[in-house]
Amino acid sequence: MCGIIGYTGNDNAKEIIINSLSALEYRGYDSAGMSLFTDNGISTVKTQGRVSELRKKASVHFPENTFCGIGHTRWATHGKPSETNAHPHGTDNVMIVHNGIIENYKELKKEFDDSLFYSDTDTEVIAKILDKEYEETHDPIKSIINTHKRLKGSYALGIIFSDIPGTVFALRKDSPLLIGTGENGMFIASDISAFLKHTNKYIRLEDGDTAMITKDSVRIFDTDGNEKSVKHETAQRNADEIQKGGFSHFMLKEIFEEPDVMKDTFSSITKDFLPDFSETISDDSFFADIGTIHIVACGTALHAGLMGKYFIEKLAKTPVTTETAGEFRYSEPILRANDMAIIISQSGETADSLAALRMLNEKNIRTLSVVNTQGSTIAEESEKVIYTLAGREIAVASTKAFNVQCEVLFILALKIALVKNTLTSDETKNILHSFSTVFSNSIPSILKNTAPFEKAAKILSECNNAFFIGRGYDNYLGQEASLKLKEITYIHSEAYAASELKHGTISLIEDGTPVIAIATDKKFFEKMRSNIEEVKSRGAVIISVCCEDADIIKEISDCVITLPSEPSYCHPFSAATAIQLLAYYTALEMGRDIDKPRNLAKSVTVE
Length: 607
Ligand code: AGP
Prior knowledge:
By secondary structure, this protein is of the alpha/beta class. Helix content is about 35%, strand content about 25%. The protein folds into three domains: about 5-240, 4-Layer Sandwich (Glutamine Phosphoribosylpyrophosphate, subunit 1, domain 1), CATH 3.60.20; about 245-435, Glucose-6-phosphate isomerase like protein, domain 1 (Rossmann fold, 3-Layer(aba) Sandwich); about 445-595, Rossmann fold. The strands form five sheets. It has an eight-stranded antiparallel sheet, with helices on one face. It has a seven-stranded antiparallel sheet with strand order 5-6-7-8-12-13-14. It has a five-stranded parallel sheet with strand order 19-18-20-21-22, with helices on both faces.
């Protein structure tokens, strides 16, 4: 997703902005640029490709003594990735950087002669509107507010006016935007990691806010132009956590953090081995009389939702629907007054998930979000929120957040089961006692021996296609395993319920086609063996991810990844770690850009 940074202060703005753009690279982008105030007015430099390219250009383009400016990493939405379409965009009077999508930009663009535009972006249209408003009002705040009232869509803007040196303006609607307040200057950013090295004190802009920052002041105005009080917050995170800590990739570091973050989350939502959500849900009545639960999310978070469906239906005997947010919000879902919606999101800013949440709020459905980013928009706008304590997840491909999302949903299923009396307290305590060995023993033991994953990776890295098969929750894990593999290796893969493969897709199986069989649920071992034989007889190479006692699976597999001996409640979670490592080592074998895969963004804040 696009990254925004703005700075004004006593330090070297060129260095600060370039380094901040580097800190935002993990969000995914295809071009970058920056505009700085110089003695000769605003000067701009842009590049297609990496921030390192921009750094080279900036070092010769700008003088050393710069103190104010804006920067941007672009993830293309309107207009192909190119230097021309890179931000900042503007006119002689104003330059802006933008994260989001302007839905009515074509209509607004008609107000101007087409020859006045140099790019294919919606952002340039905002700049033209703003320039026109500023020409008429000569008031920066009024011109920004007037512009805001004409735009439709989602946007976070960083703005500088040529005749107001040393001042950065900002405007927020839907796309997140923060103000960082440091001792040597002030920042605007789409993400705290952009200025975390300088300050962990920040202000979160709300929808419709216009901000004006100078090196020692912050003023915020509402859509009527009235100045608002400023709510300061302090981030718990420190700059250290965003270093790799000796691992070759953030993704591997984050997989290795899974035992600790699962333990932290377990401690935060259980007490004496019983579910305890009282930190954010003080009254159990929130869980009473639930009709149907609708789980809504995107990507990996949706796959965690599938696991949640399995847990809640099995343990709490409560019907659950799951749907990708982008479909749910337009599908006119069948909702009843006593239903509950669960929105799952690592970033808490995914546009489709946020839109679905807002629709559910409008329909007065009780909403619970499972979110990893404290104070994010989805967390703030849900009726209740349960935080996953996975810590900052830098790698674009989600791993530890997925495991912790599944853990929260598992414990939530137990909570609902207790409220609905489908489980007794003693039964629940026994389950959670068994489950807790997943982060004290199982996953740590998997992490100690990565050789099986490296062996399987050598097979997969030679292939262009791969198929995952499983039954029950193993099928859902296969969905996530397939996404992980695609995301970071670029190998095409599909995941199927093992029973389904023979209804068509088996035609694609030929000599050497890799089929990854996930078999961790004992009741399906026989059936899985039959499904494996069906594909093996057609030339498939079998990689199995299975339990220690799955001998009938192992004996017909070409490569086996065995889970440690563990209680059955641990299997879904240790298998999740296994499939993540399988994707990681395959990508490593292929020399892929593992933490920043092509075309991907960490948080998709546009539709
Ligand atoms: C995860 O590996 C992907 N990068 C992506 O599918 C992600 O899970 C999805 O965009 C949802 O993001 P969220 O959890 O922040 O809402």
